[in-house]
Amino acid sequence: VLIRSRTGAVVEFVPCDERGQLDAAELERMIVDDTKGPVKLVSVTHVPTSGGLVNPAAAIGAVTQKHGIPYLLDACQSVGQMPVDVEEIG
């Protein structure tokens, strides 16, 4: 709410798929939705909990690259615990 009042920015949450991961197809649908303003940034936590969930970083990166949107991936919990290929992620 504070960000919106200061800058007009709107934070939206992308629905998860049946496994609990961010749904990259739904992200793309939200990006191309003409009823909303332009997407300025996509920010995702790669491994958001200690429960084993891993968001599809490369699929999200492919969507953001396709639409020319900056992509911020919080990978602080994944680097060192699993292979992280920055080129593959985008």
Give an overview in words.
It is a single chain. The chain is an alpha+beta fold and 90 residues long. It has 4 helices and 2 strands; from the N terminus they run H-H-E-H-E-H. The chain has helices at 2-7, 24-32, 57-67, 86-89, and strands at residues 42-45, 71-74. Helix 3 links the parallel strand 1 (42-45) and strand 2 (71-74). Helix 2 runs parallel beside helix 3 (57-67). It is globular.
Most strands sheet: 2 strands, parallel
Give Rg in angstroms: 14 Å
Percentage of residues in strands: 5-15%
Order of helices and strands: HHEHEH
Numbering strands along the chain, what is their spatial order in the largest sheet? 1-2
Q: Return residue spans where pLDDT drops below 50 for at least 5 consecutive residues.
A: none
Count of helices?
Answer: 4
Total number of strands: 2
